[in-house]
Amino acid sequence: MLAGKTGLRKKNNRMINEVTLIATATFGLEMVVKSELKALGFENIKMSDGIVEFEATLADIPRVNLWLRSADRVFLKIGEFKALTFDELFEQTKALPWESLITEDGKFTVKGKSVKSTLGSVSACQAIVKKAVVEKLKEEYHVEWFKETGPEFTIQVSMLKDVALLTVDTSGAGLHRRGYRGQFGEAPLKETLAAALVLLSFWNKDRLLIDPMCGSGTILIEAAMIGRNMAPGLKREFASERWPAIDKKAWEKARYSAQVAMEPDRKLQIFGYDLDEKSIQACRINAVNAGVDDDIVFERKDVKDLWIDKQYGIIISNPPYGIRISQFSEINEIYISLHKTFKKKKGWSIYILTADEMFPNYFKRAQPDRVRKLFNGGIKVNYYQYYGERPPLPDTPGVPTEL
Ligand SMILES: C[S@@+](CC[C@H](N)C(=O)[O-])C[C@H]1O[C@@H](n2cnc3c(N)ncnc32)[C@H](O)[C@@H]1O
Fold it and tell me: Could you point out which of 125, 174, 259, 377 has its C-alpha 20 to 30 Å from the C-alpha of 188?
C-alpha cells in the first residue's frame, strides 16, 4: 500500500473523523472548484486533471455537497495503492476498512475506469473489487448473505498508471442536478458549468448582468443563486444523507446554516433574452423552481434588437454553435450584432462560451483578454473573455454610481 495514501482511516476499530475528499470537475474547471473550496475554508488542496483533493472531516461532507457550485460530484477516498495483478487489487481492497462505512444492510455497486494500466479490463476490476468488499464485510458482520435494503454506497475503482484509487460517491446524482430545471431550452448548459462561467467573470451581486441568448436561463439562475448566497444543493438529496457514519446532526446543521445564509432581500439586476418564446417560458418556470424569479427579468428579444443604455455591465452568454443548432449565416449575424452593440461600450465585460473559433474574427472590439479551454457536454469549447473598464467606485465623491 502507498504509505499515507489511505483516505478512510481506522483506529481501535473506530473510524477516524478525518478523511480525504475528492471533488471531481469537468476538465478546465479544477481551479474554480479549488477557489470554491478555499472560500469554504479548506486548505491543502491538491489538483490534477479533473480531480480536486482535500483534507476534511466526515461532518464536512454535507456542507461541501450543499455548497459546491462547479464540481461534478464529491467522493470519499477509501484508499490508493499500486496494483499490477488482480491478486494485489483483491488483497489491498480487502484490507481497507469498508465496514466502518458500509452498513450490514448497505446496498453497494462498483463502477470503474482504467487509464494506462496493466489491469485494463474495467469490468474485471469492478468484479474483483466487489468480491473483495463482500469478503471483508462477510468477515466483519459474520454473515453469508446481504439483504442490501439499506443506504446506497457507490464504490468507484479508478486505475491510473497502475495505481488503484478507491472512492465512494457521497453525492449520488451529479451536483448539477440542483432540482430546479424541469424545463429545458435548446442545448442547455450543465448547471455546474454555468455557475463556473459566472464565477470566472467579473460579475458580482452589485453589477448588471445580461445573457442575450439565455436558452433555459441556466447562467442567470446560477448567478442569481450566487448573488443571493443560496446553496445550490438545498433543494435536493444526497446519497450520503442516509449513511450512519455521518451524524444526522451534521446534515441538519449544514442545511440550517444554508437556509439562514440566504439573502432574500438583496436586489439584483439580471436580465435574460432569447429569440424563442418557449425558452423564455421555460426560463420563468425554472427561475420560480429555483426561488429566484424576483431576481431576473426574462423577455423575448432578438439579439439584433438588444439596446444598451448603461455604461457598465457584464454579458455572459453561450450563443448557438452551429454544430448542434443554428446555421452559420445566422450565427455570423449574431456575432456582428454583438460587435455593433458593444464596440463602443468599453465599460462592458463580455464573456462568450462557444465551440466556434471564428467568434473573435467577428467580435472585434479588441483581442480577447483571456481564452479558456473548457468542455461543454464533451465538446471542446472556448470561453472568450473581454474585460471592460472598471466602473467608478460607489463612494467616489461627485461621481454618479452606475455599475
Ligand atoms: C446554446 S443555447 C443557450 C443555452 C443556455 N445557455 C442554457 O443553458 O439553456 C443558444 C440560445 O440562443 C438562442 N438564439 C438563437 N438566435 C438568437 C437570436 N438571434 N437572438 C436571441 N437569441 C437567439 C436560441 O433560441 C437558444 O436558446
Answer: 259
The superfamily in CATH containing domain 191-231+245-259+266-386 is Vaccinia Virus protein VP39 (3.40.50.150)
pLDDT in tens, 164-174: 999 999 999 99
pLDDT at residue 13, rounded to an integer: 47
Q: What are the tens digits of pLDDT across the range 101-119? A: 999 999 999 999 999 999 9
pLDDT < 50: residue spans in the chain: 1-6, 13-14, 399-400
**Cα-Cα-Cα-Cα dihedral sign, residues 389, 390, 394, 396:** negative
Q: Which residues, judged by CB distance below 6 Å to any ligand atom, belong to the binding site of ligand 1? A: 185-189, 194, 212-216, 218-219, 274-276, 279, 302-303, 318-320, 326, 334
Atom of ligand 1 lying closest to residue 279 CA:
27
Best substitution site from 213, 220, 316, 356 to test ligand 1's pocket, by max atoms within 8 Å of Cβ? 213
Residue 303 exposure: Cα atoms within 13 Å on the Cβ side: 25
